């Protein structure tokens, strides 16, 4: 039995410039658990993933983020990664000239892990997720299809074996087969490696393979409801209307420049 860990977010408020985007987030994810975060466009889902990871450009005004007893807000992004946090971003960056082999090798060195066997592990994980192994030697994400990008991220996730993974709309741009493979791989991580997951998604279809323990609804930077897996199905039917939100109105309310009031 591996050690249990906990990722705890308390009363988190964060701004972009003067605008408050996150307005008091509370969240507690334990090893092996899957939490889904659902909400309309512009509600702050990606902002939360960025603030958790420490992406520059956001100001945390109040609140805390702890991984066990480690204060993540005091750490730069690379140290959060080293501590066991992994973000599968909505738009993975293209990194010309850097291969997955070199990136993972550098990560292993940074984490003071033994690189013996890394190459075999990468190949085994590529096979497992259905990514041609030649892609490990191509520039990261450059001219990768949507499915290849996400399978590639799954190899990184498997090899780095973080304590917690944040998946930001991992389902966007994936066909049914890729979605099934990716969600099964993450689900397997929760069982085999006790991975804790925050899965941000619009669609309950992701959650058919990746079974959530809890589903949270984020509206205008606040978690307004938390429930079990059935909540995802309800949302698919009813949308966010019961929370007084239409997507367009919500976008306008939080100051999206492209939003407009109905
Ligand atoms: P979601 O992922 O739920 O669609 P986001 O977290 O991307 O929402 O965005 C929430 C709100 O914050 C939106 O109104 C968006 O325009 C705004 N926002 C997020 N990041 C920035 C930024 N870097 N600069 C300006 N506005 C931002
Ligand atoms: Mg987003």
Supply the key terms.
262 residues; alpha/beta; Rossmann fold; six-stranded mixed β-sheet; four-stranded antiparallel β-sheet; 9 helices; 12 strands; disordered C terminus; binds adenosine-5'-diphosphate; binds magnesium ion
Short description:
The chain is α/β, with parallel strands linked by helices. Helices cover 35% and strands 27% of the residues.
Series of H and E elements = EEEHEEHEEHHEHEHEHEEHH
From the alpha carbons, calculate the radius of gyration and give it in angstroms. Answer: 18 Å
Structure summary, number of beta strands: 12
CATH homologous superfamily - what is it?
P-loop containing nucleotide triphosphate hydrolases
By DSSP (H or I, 4+ residues per run), the number of helices equals 9
Helix content: 25-40%
Q: List bound small molecules.
A: adenosine-5'-diphosphate, magnesium ion
What is the end-to-end distance?
Answer: 53 Å
Spans where pLDDT lies below 50 across 5 or more residues: 248-262
Strand order of the largest sheet: 6-9-10-3-11-12
CATH class annotation: Alpha Beta
Protein structure class: alpha/beta
What is the second-level CATH architecture?
A: 3-Layer(aba) Sandwich
CATH topology: Rossmann fold
Task: Tell me the major beta sheet.
Answer: 6 strands, mixed
Description of the structure:
The chain has a single domain (6-36, 54-251), classed as 3-Layer(aba) Sandwich (Rossmann fold), CATH 3.40.50.300. The longest helix is centred in the last third of the chain and has 17 residues, at 176-192. It has helices spanning 45-53, 77-83, 100-110, 118-129, 146-160, 176-192, 206-209, 230-238, 247-253, and strands spanning 6-16, 19-30, 34-38, 59-67, 70-71, 85-88, 95-99, 139-140, 164-168, 196-200, 214-219, 222-227. The protein is an alpha/beta fold and 262 residues long. 39% of the residues are buried. The chain binds adenosine-5'-diphosphate and magnesium ion (MG).
